[in-house]
Amino acid sequence: MVTRRLKSMQSSGRSNLSGTRVSNEILNRIPAREFDLIRPHLEFVKLSSHLRLNEPDQKIEAAYFPNSGMISLVIVMSTGRAVEVGVTGREGFAGAPAAAGVARSPVREIVQVPGEGFYIRVKALHQVMKSAPLLNGLLSQYSVLLAMQMAQTAACNRLHHVESRLSRWLLMTEDRVQEEYLAITHDFLAEMLGTDRPSVSLAAARLQRKGLIQYKRAAVKIINRAHLELASCECYAAVKKFNRQLGLV
């Protein structure tokens, strides 16, 4: 299977032509020959907070491979309201439809937690994929897992209460962001969870009273991860199960 073969190919010390180290799991899992093909096309990019990488129904110009930070996949309605339906970080990539030959996507890809990484133009990625079967397979597998995550998240947003959804979101974020505090505001959390700010504030206050998180201005710290997992709905475990199929976070 592709997964088993890829696990044995993890590499360290990789960088783009400018010398920026690669921490993205997909780029570190492909064999050296395939990395040599994609390496000249990897351009370093700072992923600043709220940077929009791709917009709904606009042509996808580039795929992004984060080294750090987190990117949200957001559905935007005609009213302007938005809700997060998926996330990706150093375990994956943004611009998944383009890798499958689909020029446009229904989601906005926006940096939620700042970091850095690489981008590659779609045309160059398609050329590399023609001669890189393991990269091709891994991108395809990750795209499927991301679609499964989006379906699970959509169900979660519809069926589960805010406290459980907030717990899931915090756990998924900590999996991808190696920082003591998660820099996020209640307003942005409300938008991502598809609810209102007062509901998020109440949910965060309850979790803090239980000793599961510590909240200060525009930042959250997980204090008791084991109990936060218990407070989360079944969706966090379901998404983790999806990712374990590929050996990801």
Descriptive notes:
This protein folds into 2 domains: 2-156, Sandwich (Jelly Rolls); 161-232, Winged helix-like DNA-binding domain superfamily/Winged helix DNA-binding domain (Arc Repressor Mutant, subunit A, Orthogonal Bundle), CATH 1.10.10.10. Helix content is 45%, strand content 20%. It has helices at 2-7, 25-29, 32-38, 96-99, 122-130, 133-159, 162-176, 186-193, 197-209, 225-231, 234-244; strands at residues 43-47, 52-54, 62-66, 70-76, 82-88, 108-113, 115-121, 182-183, 213-216, 219-222. A hairpin with a 5-residue loop joins strand 4 and strand 5. Helix 6 runs antiparallel to helix 11, helix 7 packs across helix 9 (197-209) and helix 7 (162-176) crosses helix 10. The chain is globular, with a radius of gyration of 18 Å.
Distance between the termini: 19 Å
Please, what is the average pLDDT? 89
Number of strands: 10
Largest sheet composition:
4 strands, antiparallel
Low-confidence stretches: 1-11
CATH architecture of the largest domain: Sandwich
For the record, the count of structural domains works out to 2
CATH class of the largest domain: Mainly Beta
Remind me, CATH topology of the largest domain? Jelly Rolls
**Quaternary assembly:** single chain
CATH superfamily of the largest domain: Jelly Rolls
Strand order of the largest sheet: 2-6-4-5
Order of helices and strands: HHHEEEEEHEEHHHEHHEEHH
Strand composition percent: 15-25%
How many helices does DSSP assign?
A: 11
Please give the radius of gyration in angstroms.
18 Å
| Shape summary | globular
How helical, in percent, are the residues? 40-55%
* Category by helix and strand content: alpha+beta
